Amino acid sequence: GGWGMGSGGGEPSAVKEPITGITFPGSMQAGGKSLELMGCGERKKKIVGPVAVNVYAIGMYVDQGAASAAGKGTSSEAAAAKVLSDGSFTKSLRLVMARTVNAEKIGDALAEQIEPRVRGTGAPVEEFKGFFKGLDKLENQQVVTFTQSGTTLAVSAPGNRTSQFNSAPLCKALFDIYLGDKPVSDNAKRAMAQGFLKLCGTI
Questions:
Q1: Largest Cα–Cα distance of the chain, in whole Å?
Q2: How far is it, in rounded angstroms, from Cα 64 to Cα 37?
Q3: Residue extents of the structural domains in the chain
């Protein structure tokens, strides 16, 4: 906590995700760096027929200097999403619950998306699932963060529970869920890509 003295530019402002009403701070500390929010969106899950519920909101944060250098000349949302997904700069996904759900369900749902993307790579999907299995419930408004530094994915959950997975394919797969060709939230992908184009000075 604490505001620190920050840079002359002041703190980036917080953003409210419009569908869930969840607020994302403009910056967060992760991977030993101060990361800046690119954008956020909601993850819905269909329950019956056309009825869907908001499960969580997801926001993406990046190391501003390294990310803008990697994105130099990026001019389309598709290209921006690709740089965000594939870039080797420190980046983080902040998942904020919009309802209370058994943690194991969230882990299984993410693993279901990760599995087809890592087939044959030996990525530690079972261990990833096991981390969530070891948690109890994820309460409404609780936060899970996923931070990629190099090829390591650090996961942090309520109650100071943390785990690290050293796997480039796992990192790539997780970010691809939100930034790839079939994102689980169109709104999140669009917001993240637009935020990145702003960071790169394109829009």
A1: 51
A2: 9
A3: 15-200
In 87-160, which residue ranges form alpha helices assigned H by DSSP? 103-118, 125-133
- Could you give the angle at the alpha carbon of 139 between the alpha carbons of 134 and 143, nearest 5°? 80
**CATH number of the domain located at residue range(s) 15-200 in this protein:** 3.50.70.10
Q: Is the dihedral of CA 193, 76, 78, 173 positive or negative?
A: negative
pLDDT tens per residue, the chain (203 residues)? 444 444 445 668 999 999 999 999 999 999 999 999 999 999 999 888 888 999 999 999 999 999 999 999 999 999 999 999 999 999 999 999 999 999 999 999 999 999 999 999 999 999 999 999 999 999 999 999 999 999 999 999 999 999 999 999 999 999 999 999 999 999 999 999 999 999 998 77
Residue 8: C-alpha distances to residues 5, 11, 64, 155, 191 (Å): 9, 9, 15, 31, 26
C-alpha to C-alpha distance for 145 and 95, rounded to whole angstroms: 6
